[in-house]
């Protein structure tokens, strides 16, 4: 932990970033790598018993923190770029009414104009990239191998041998089972179930190309064709008359989505097949039945919101007449789809069991704030809830996240950010006093002198160490003369004066001092007051102030 604290501080000081103009997102990426290394170390060579349980718990924390930094870097880099592009006069240009453009171009234009939708897509990518690992099914050549073999043996076997296979299909094609209302061989059924689950898990992780490749390699290419219908139709010659690229995508994508919804709605299909086509069509009903983790549930709802908003955004002028989909009215989703990111998290947090418990995790709450662009409100709430019992890891995370967000150009409430930084400084002062100056320098100027003076005057260290702390403060741009004067004043005054906040008290502080007898031992307070004068001797410019004191 000590090493990590120093590594985070080096990023704050800028040693890891050089002259990177997008320091907020770049710093978050460095934090992601640092915490990912801790996660990998914690999960490698896991021990048994209580020590092993703690090791796994630590690994889970580091992985979740690494995912949080990843989300922050993705979203705030995108938001910063959008603010830069917003200054372009062409930003208002729209292709909504241009009927000569293909769906692909119109979808790209929609994502450029609708910053919120673009963020939702990035959140979905993040949820896909951070999904739990799974074991895909192995590739098997030969469609319905065991069923095919059983059909061949039926022609040569006697009636007694055939009795076990009378319920099997007699044809080998994808529709044979539903058409004949018969089963396939148990071995083929088990493989198909595993295949469908793998296809869903691939789609769940944004690995559509892997899903289609698995279908082709397993001699089931029609499944790949059924999933490929989601590609937006594109005619390159509509964009460039001299283009020689081929037309691609699905010109009737809306009709395809209704067909996928019908497959998902059919209760006779496998649960993972229903979830697969529900995800492709933007439904949530069937996807939720196979969700396990918080990440899964959020992805299901975010995916539905994106598809709904894409459909709504692409309505209007079109170069072709779309095929009607009125025959699919019976497959409407039973659940009310969320309309924005905040509603998605509200729905997931209302679930029972382990998902609700995971949603209450501190890092999950921070991830929600980042995804909903509500980090400013989150920092204020976090600052108000600060106490000595607050997890020091969360203080570190929120402090550095605040710096990243602020460096990306977003506005944050300075009092709240300062409160979080001061809480982190208070914890650093115990074991890492050499790092304090780097964080105090991130506070507003009017707070820097007070906070650093309070920090240094409470240290019971040698004079050489005190001077080193002043040198660090000077390197970070603090007004060391003002710090020394404030530290001296705070040190020589009695504690009851330091605690007094009554501005109407105009009495002379010297009237409250009492002289001690020479024979009396020096108290800790008196020793602190004497040593406070050391600050005024750190520079010749402070000698007059030292004499005055």
Keywords:
549 residues; elongated; 29 helices; mainly alpha
Q: How would you sum up this structure, described in words?
A:
This protein has 549 residues and is mainly α. It is 61% helix and 0% strand. The protein is built from 29 helices and no strands. The radius of gyration is 33 Å and the shape is elongated. The two termini are 42 Å apart. 32% of the residues are buried. About 3% of the residues have low confidence.
Short description:
The chain is mainly alpha-helical and about 550 residues long.
Question: What is the element layout, followed by pairings?
Answer:
Elements lengths: L1 H11 L10 H21 L5 H37 L17 H11 L1 H15 L15 H10 L4 H4 L13 H5 L5 H19 L3 H10 L3 H8 L7 H4 L13 H13 L5 H11 L3 H4 L5 H20 L27 H9 L4 H6 L2 H10 L3 H10 L7 H16 L6 H18 L4 H5 L4 H13 L5 H13 L4 H13 L2 H5 L24 H9 L10 H6 L1
Helix pairs in contact: 1-2, 2-3, 2-21, 3-5, 3-19, 3-21, 4-5, 5-16, 9-10, 9-14, 10-11, 13-14, 16-17, 20-22, 21-22, 24-26, 26-28
């Amino acid at each position: 932990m000590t090493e990590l604290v120093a590594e985070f501080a080096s990023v704050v000081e800028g040693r890891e970033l050089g002259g990177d103009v997008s320091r907020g997102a770049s710093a978050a990426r460095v934090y992601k790598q640092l915490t990912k290394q801790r996660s990998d170390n914690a999960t490698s060579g896991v021990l048994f018993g209580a020590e092993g349980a703690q090791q796994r718990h630590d690994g889970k924390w580091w992985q979740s923190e690494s995912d949080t930094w990843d989300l922050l870097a993705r979203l705030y880099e995108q938001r910063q770029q959008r603010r830069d592009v917003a200054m372009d006069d062409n930003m208002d240009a729209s292709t909504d009414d241009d009927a000569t453009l293909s769906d692909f171009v119109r979808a790209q234009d929609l994502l450029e104009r609708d910053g919120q939708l673009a963020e939702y897509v990035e959140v979905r990518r993040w949820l896909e990239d951070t999904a739990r690992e799974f074991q895909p099914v192995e590739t098997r050549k030969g469609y319905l191998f065991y069923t095919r073999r059983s059909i061949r043996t039926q022609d040569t076997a006697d009636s007694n041998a055939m009795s076990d296979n009378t319920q099997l299909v007699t044809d080998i094609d994808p529709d044979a089972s539903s058409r004949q209302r018969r089963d396939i061989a148990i071995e083929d059924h088990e493989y198909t179930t595993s295949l469908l689950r793998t296809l869903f898990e691939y789609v769940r992780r944004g690995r559509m190309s892997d899903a289609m490749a698995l279908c082709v390699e397993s001699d089931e290419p029609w499944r790949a064709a059924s999933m490929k219908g989601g590609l937006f139709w594109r005619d390159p010659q509509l964009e460039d008359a001299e283009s020689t690229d081929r037309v691609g995508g699905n010109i009737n994508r809306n009709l395809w989505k209704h067909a996928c919804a019908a497959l998902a709605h059919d209760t006779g299909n496998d649960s993972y097949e229903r979830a697969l086509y529900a995800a492709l069509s933007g439904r949530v009903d069937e996807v939720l039945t196979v969700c396990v983790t918080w990440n899964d549930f959020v992805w299901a709802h975010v995916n539905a919101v994106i598809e709904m908003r894409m459909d709504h955004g692409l309505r209007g002028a079109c170069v072709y007449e779309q095929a009607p989909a009125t025959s699919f009215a019976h497959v409407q989703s039973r659940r009310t789809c969320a309309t924005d990111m905040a509603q998605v998290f509200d729905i997931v947090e209302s679930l029972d069991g382990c998902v609700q418990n995971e949603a209450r995790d501190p890092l999950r709450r921070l991830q929600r704030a980042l995804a909903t662009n509500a980090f400013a409100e989150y920092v204020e709430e976090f600052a108000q809830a600060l106490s000595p019992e607050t997890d020091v890891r969360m203080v570190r995370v929120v402090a550095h996240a605040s710096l990243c967000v602020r460096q990306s150009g977003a506005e944050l409430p300075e009092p709240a950010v300062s409160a979080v930084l001061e809480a982190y400084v208070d914890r650093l002062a115990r074991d890492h006093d050499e790092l304090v100056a780097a964080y105090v320098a991130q506070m507003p100027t009017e707070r820097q002198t007070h906070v650093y003076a309070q920090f240094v005057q409470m240290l019971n260290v040698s004079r050489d160490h005190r001077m080193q702390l002043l040198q660090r403060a000077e390197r970070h741009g603090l007004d060391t003369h003002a710090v020394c004067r404030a530290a001296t004043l705070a040190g020589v005054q009695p504690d009851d004066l330091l605690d007094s906040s009554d501005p109407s008290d105009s009495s002379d502080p010297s009237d409250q001092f009492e002289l001690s007898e020479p024979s009396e031992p020096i108290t800790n307070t008196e020793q602190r007051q004497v040593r406070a004068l050391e600050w005024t001797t750190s520079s010749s410019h402070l000698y007059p102030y030292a004499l005055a004191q």
